[in-house]
UniProtKB/TrEMBL annotation:
Top-level taxon in the UniProt lineage: Bacteria
Pfam families cross-referenced by the UniProt entry: DUF3016
Leader sequence residues: 1-19
Name by which UniProt lists this protein: DUF3016 domain-containing protein
Amino acid sequence: MKLKTLFVAGMLVSSSVWAADEAVENQVTEDGVVKVEWQDPDSFRDIRSSGDIQSRFEKRTFDQLTKNLNKEASKILKPDQKLEMVVTDLDLAGDVRPTFGATTHDMRIVKDIYPPRITFSYKVIEGDKVIIAGDEKLIDMNFMYSVNKMNDKTYRYENAMLTSWLKKSIAPQL
């Protein structure tokens, strides 16, 4: 009986390990004129949650960044244009540090030595024609000094960096 129980337990463990090895699909977020594919988030430089379930934190982060991109891109793009991006790396402003039991969660410490970064490819599509395409590696070394300090919105540094990119790189080409 013990051997049968061990065999069944072994099968369950091996099947769960096998399921974990399966390729995870890239997350895709879409809002209005913006579509973003988040390619292999597990390999991103820093998208660590400080106190939430990691998958929930990633989904909320990706949704918020896409929502803000849509808000800003809608002001720049013409009605029949769409922005599509494939993000290959993301590093949120700050660094997650353990609290060693002082609280139940880790803390994200935001200092100027931990700037936000993002690497992606993009294309602006008009109808079925690509009118602008390229690759970007954005980093905002001045992020602590360029955003209103009274702004307490989530992902304010990343949103400011992407908004600046839209205004300086995409808008002049349209």
